[in-house]
């Protein structure tokens, strides 16, 4: 069959949203238009792409295969068409997926200065620790630690090297003692992080004499919200771990102190990353230039 880009756009939206109504809202069309478009695509291919129930929509095996094959190329085509029709300053919707611990990107000044410099761009930031494919999820770019970015992506440094710190209040340490070695944490009240309810808590990572190791601390408090971790630690609720940038204001004011510094080395920091393609859209090039100017 001849390719109909609109039908493929409908399919990509349904694959992402897993819901016809949400896909229609995302595309700015009616639900019936999406449903009829998917039906026309299926009829043209002679195969079912989605399974429909009263509450859920999910891709069939053939639908999953088609989605994997076209998500990246269709994104490239869309960007090329947008760029071909664009004149003057950057404009359009720019969707970015950023990890919740990317303090430099999420703290406010970088984003505020970008939208002020580029009034034609609408920036949509999704804060997520899901490491799924940004192209398949419909994002233009992502912000992650360098160690988890796929090698076929273009990565622009957002920060210099980073490290984690283990922190607690002075009062907590005075009352419960200061750990001298990571294994001492096993006898402390720890405040841990997990990415999702069904996921195991993060294993705290350390290095000793050039050897990396991790530790299951069995946290008494576990959450996916860094702000709750900070607040609980500030209230004397225990010892927690996170990026040094995140805790820096509290460390500078003496509200928290770091321990076990000798076991916490630096590692590559955060990067803005996006698919490697010949002609990225002007709105993305504007963000890249802004990050380059903003980075230390």
Characterization of the model:
There is one protein chain. By secondary structure, the chain is α/β, with parallel strands linked by helices. It has 3 domains: 5-70, Arc Repressor Mutant, subunit A (Orthogonal Bundle), CATH 1.10.10; 92-160 and 269-294, D-Maltodextrin-Binding Protein, domain 2 (3-Layer(aba) Sandwich); 164-263, D-Maltodextrin-Binding Protein, domain 2 (3-Layer(aba) Sandwich). It is built from 10 helices and 14 strands. The chain has helices at residues 5-17, 20-27, 31-45, 61-84, 103-106, 109-117, 170-176, 226-234, 244-252, 282-294, and strands at residues 50-52, 57-59, 92-98, 121-127, 141-145, 153-157, 164-168, 190-193, 204-208, 211-215, 221-223, 239-243, 257-259, 270-275. Strands 4-3-5-14-6 form a 5-stranded mixed β-sheet, with helices on one face. The protein has a 5-stranded mixed β-sheet with strand order 11-8-12-7-13. β1 and β2 (57-59) form a beta hairpin. α1 (5-17) packs across α2, α1 crosses α3 (31-45) and α1 (5-17) packs across α4. The relative contact order is 0.15. The model has no long low-confidence stretch (mean pLDDT 88).
* Overall number of domains: 3
Order of helices and strands: HHHEEHEHHEEEEHEEEEHEHEEH
The number of helices is 10
- According to DSSP, the number of beta strands is 14
State Rg: 23 Å
Per CATH, the class of the largest domain reads Alpha Beta
- CATH architectural category of the largest domain: 3-Layer(aba) Sandwich
Which descriptor suits the 3D outline? Answer: elongated
What characterizes the major β-sheet?
A: 5 strands, mixed
> In percent, how helical is the residue content?
25-40%
**Class from helix and strand fractions:** alpha/beta
Spatial ordering of strands, largest sheet: 4-3-5-14-6
Share in β-strands: 15-25%
Distance between the termini: 51 Å
């Amino acid at each position: 069959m001849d390719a109909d880009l609109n039908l493929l756009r409908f399919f990509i939206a349904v694959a992402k949203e897993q819901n016809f109504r949400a896909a229609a809202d995302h595309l700015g069309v009616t639900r019936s238009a999406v449903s009829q478009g998917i039906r026309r695509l299926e009829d043209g291919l002679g195969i079912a792409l989605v399974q429909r129930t009263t509450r859920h929509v999910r891709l069939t095996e053939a639908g999953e295969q088609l989605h994997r094959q076209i998500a990246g190329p269709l994104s490239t085509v869309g960007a090329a068409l947008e760029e071909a029709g664009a004149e003057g300053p950057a404009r359009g919707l720019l969707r970015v997926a950023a990890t919740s611990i990317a303090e430099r990107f999420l703290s406010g000044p970088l984003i505020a200065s970008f939208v002020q410099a580029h009034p034609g761009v609408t920036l949509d930031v999704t804060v997520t620790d899901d490491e799924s494919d940004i192209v398949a999820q419909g994002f233009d770019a992502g912000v992650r630690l360098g160690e988890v970015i796929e090698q076929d992506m273009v990565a622009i440094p957002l920060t210099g090297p980073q490290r984690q710190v283990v922190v607690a209040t002075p009062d907590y340490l005075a009352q419960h003692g200061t750990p001298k070695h990571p294994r001492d944490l096993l006898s402390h009240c720890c405040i841990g992080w997990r990415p999702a309810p069904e996921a195991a808590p993060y294993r705290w990572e350390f290095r000793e004499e050039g050897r990396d190791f991790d530790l299951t601390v069995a946290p008494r408090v576990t959450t996916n919200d860094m702000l709750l971790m900070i607040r609980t630690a500030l209230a004397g609720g225990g010892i927690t771990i996170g990026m040094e940038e995140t805790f820096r204001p509290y460390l500078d004011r003496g509200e928290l102190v770091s321990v076990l510094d000798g076991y916490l080395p630096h590692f590559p920091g955060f990067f803005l990353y996006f698919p490697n393609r010949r002609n990225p859209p002007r709105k993305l090039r504007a963000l890249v230039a802004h990050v380059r100017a903003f980075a230390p």
